[in-house]
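Sequence design from tokenized structure. All designs in this work follow the same two-part layout: the structure record, then the generated sequence. An example of the structure record is given first.
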């Protein structure tokens, strides 16, 4: 049974009820809001697994909402499916170029909507498979399946949160992550991570890594990155 959390942003009550009913029937957890600004706030607060976003909204239109979502470190990873009565090619192309995963033109079949969601989640799952890959970088071997880090071939004693932050950064060497993005990437059950604690975890990681700790670089005013070899 599906358990993913879906945020629906649409100002038409009938559409919201139709989508809520059909997605809940499939086991999804559904949150509905009726404006673009509320949708963006809810996305930041709830971190849903996917967003169904209408383009024609009363305050902030869907394209602007999509732009804000994809420019925000906390929400940029969330798949967006556009729901729109506007079938014009230009609107669809603009939405896809902004980072939307897919689009559905109203009126639509609930079965088609559910099928499109499933495709998006399968696609996202395949992208996330790299989280299980072993990382070899800067004399480090980071194995998420064994939850083990080797430095120069010797095992390191890291806390769970230290391990998750190190693996998160090392999987994407050279890419800069804000503290919020790091929190979003490593959070989960029993992981109490805040912006302040991210800095503390980084300091501890650098100490434990010794000279190899220099691979974790501070990007002033932004966050951190793991240096490319």
């Amino acid at each position: 049974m599906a358990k993913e959390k879906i945020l629906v942003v649409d100002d038409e009550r009938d559409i919201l009820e139709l989508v809520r009913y059909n997605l809940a029937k499939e086991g999804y957890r559904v949150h509905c809001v009726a404006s673009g600004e509320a949708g963006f706030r809810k996305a930041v607060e709830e971190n849903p697994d996917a967003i169904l976003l209408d383009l024609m909204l009363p305050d902030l239109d869907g394209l602007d909402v999509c732009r804000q979502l994809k420019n925000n470190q906390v929400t940029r990873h969330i798949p967006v499916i556009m729901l729109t009565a506007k079938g014009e090619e230009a609107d669809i192309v603009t939405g896809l170029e902004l980072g939307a995963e897919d689009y559905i033109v109203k009126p639509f079949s609930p079965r088609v909507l559910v099928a499109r969601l499933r495709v998006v989640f399968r696609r996202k799952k395949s992208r996330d498979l790299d989280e299980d890959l072993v990382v070899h970088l800067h004399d480090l071997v980071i194995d998420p399946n064994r939850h083990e880090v080797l430095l120069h071939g010797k095992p390191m004693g890291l806390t769970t949160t230290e391990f998750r932050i190190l693996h998160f950064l090392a999987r994407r060497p050279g890419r800069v992550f804000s503290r919020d993005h790091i929190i979003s990437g490593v959070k989960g059950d029993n992981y109490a991570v805040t912006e302040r604690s991210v800095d503390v975890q980084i300091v501890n990681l650098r100490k434990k890594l010794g000279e190899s700790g220099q691979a974790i670089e501070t990007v002033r005013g932004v966050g951190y990155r793991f240096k490319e070899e």
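The longest helix spans residues 110-128. We note this feature because it recurs in several other targets discussed in the main text.
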